[in-house]
C-alpha cells in the first residue's frame, strides 16, 4: 500500500490513485459486485430486493461485519465498477476474557485488475479494522499457493483448514 | 457416537451413557466451563456478571451461535462438571445466493476425560446443527496433528490457516 490514511480505518474511505477503498453500499449491486464474487465461488445473481435484504441482514451486525470494496473511481460515474472486495467478520468468544477474533473472508480481485495490489490494500485495511475493534488476532483460510500473498500483509501459517460440504 | 437422537439436533439435548450433550447454560460458569476452556487457550476467570454479559451477547445471536457442552450427568447435582465443549457460529454471505457457512471453534475436552469420544460427540452434533440451519459447508481450523481426529467426523483437509496476532 503506497500510503495509509491517518484517519480511522473503520470509518474513513481511502483513495489511493484511481481506486477508492470503501465500505460496500447497497447500490454496488449495479457495479458488478456479485459477478466479481462469482470469480471466487458460486454466486448466483440476486434481485435488487434480495440483494437489499442480504445487505440489511449483514449491516445489522454493525461493526461485527465489514465488507470493503475497491471501486474504479477514475471512471465516469455510470462506468464505475467494483474491482476487488474482502470481508471481515468478528467472532466473540469466552476465551481471552470475552475476546474477539477477526475472520477475513471472500477476498477476490477482478481478473482484469490483478497485479495492481488492490487485494492487498483491501486485506490490509481489514486487518487494521480488526485491530481497531479490539480483536486479539485475525485469521483467514486460503489455498497453499496463496501463503506468500497473505504473508505480504503479515499473516503467518498457523494450521490446517478442514471442511465438510453438505 | 453410539446413537443419534431422532429429534432435532438443534433443539434437543442428547444423553448417551453418563454424559449429556446440551446447550451451554449461564449456570455452567459454576461447573468449570472457563477452566475447561483454559486448557485450550488463555481464558481468565470472569465474574458472574461478566460471564452473564458475555453469555447474553452470544445468546443474542440466536441460531447463529451455538455452544454445546458435555456434562457429567451421572454425578450428583453439586458435583456435575463440564467435560467437553465446542462452538458453532454461522457466517452469512452474499456468495451462494445469501449462503451460510458454519464455523466450528473452541473444541476442548477435559484432560481427565479424554479418550471417551466426548469431543467427537460434540463436534458431530455441531455438524448436524450446521446442516439443519442450512449451511452449505462447515469448516474449522486445527493443528496438523488433529487432521485424523476431525476426519472421524467427516472433515477433509481443504487449505491452510493463516493468522496475525496483535
Count of individual beta strands of chain A? 7
Oligomer: homodimer
Radius of gyration of chain A: 16 Å
| Unreliable stretches covering 5 or more consecutive residues of chain A | 1-12
Note the beta-strand portion of chain A: 25-35%
Helix content of chain A: 10-25%
Rounded to the nearest angstrom, the distance between the terminal CA atoms of chain A is 39 Å
| CATH secondary-structure class of chain A | Alpha Beta
Label the CATH architecture of chain A: 3-Layer(aba) Sandwich
- The CATH superfamily of chain A turns out to be Gcn5-related N-acetyltransferase (GNAT)
Description:
Chain A is α+β, with helices and mostly antiparallel strands and 166 residues long. Chain A has a single domain, classed as Aminopeptidase (3-Layer(aba) Sandwich). The first copy, chain A, is 25% helix and 33% strand. The first copy, chain A, has helices at residues 33-37, 48-59, 95-98, 118-132, 147-151; strands at 14-16, 19-23, 65-72, 82-92, 100-109, 135-142, 156-165. The first copy, chain A, has a 6-stranded mixed beta sheet with strand order 1-2-3-4-5-6. At the A-B interface, α1, α2, β4, α3 and β5 of A face α1, α2, β4, α3 and β5 of B. β7 of chain A pairs antiparallel with β6 of chain B. Chains A, B: It comes from Zizania palustris.
Amino acid at each position: 500500500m503506497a500510503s495509509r490514511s491517518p484517519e480511522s480505518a473503520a470509518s474513513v474511505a481511502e483513495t489511493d490513485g484511481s481506486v477508492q477503498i470503501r465500505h460496500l453500499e447497497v447500490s454496488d449491486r449495479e457495479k458488478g459486485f456479485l459477478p466479481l464474487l462469482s470469480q471466487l465461488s458460486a454466486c448466483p445473481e440476486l434481485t435488487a430486493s434480495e440483494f437489499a435484504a442480504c445487505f440489511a441482514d449483514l449491516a445489522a451486525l454493525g461493526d461485527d461485519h465489514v465488507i470493503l470494496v475497491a471501486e474504479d473511481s477514475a471512471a465516469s460515474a455510470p462506468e464505475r465498477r467494483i474491482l476487488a472486495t474482502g470481508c471481515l467478520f468478528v467472532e466473540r468468544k469466552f476465551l481471552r476474557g470475552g475476546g474477539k477474533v477477526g475472520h477475513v473472508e471472500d477476498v477476490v480481485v477482478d481478473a482484469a485488475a490483478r497485479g495492481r495490489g488492490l487485494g492487498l490494500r483491501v486485506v490490509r485495511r481489514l486487518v487494521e479494522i480488526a485491530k481497531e475493534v479490539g480483536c486479539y488476532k485475525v485469521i483467514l483460510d486460503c489455498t497453499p499457493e496463496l501463503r506468500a500473498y497473505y504473508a505480504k500483509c503479515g499473516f503467518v501459517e498457523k494450521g490446517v483448514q478442514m471442511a465438510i460440504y453438505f
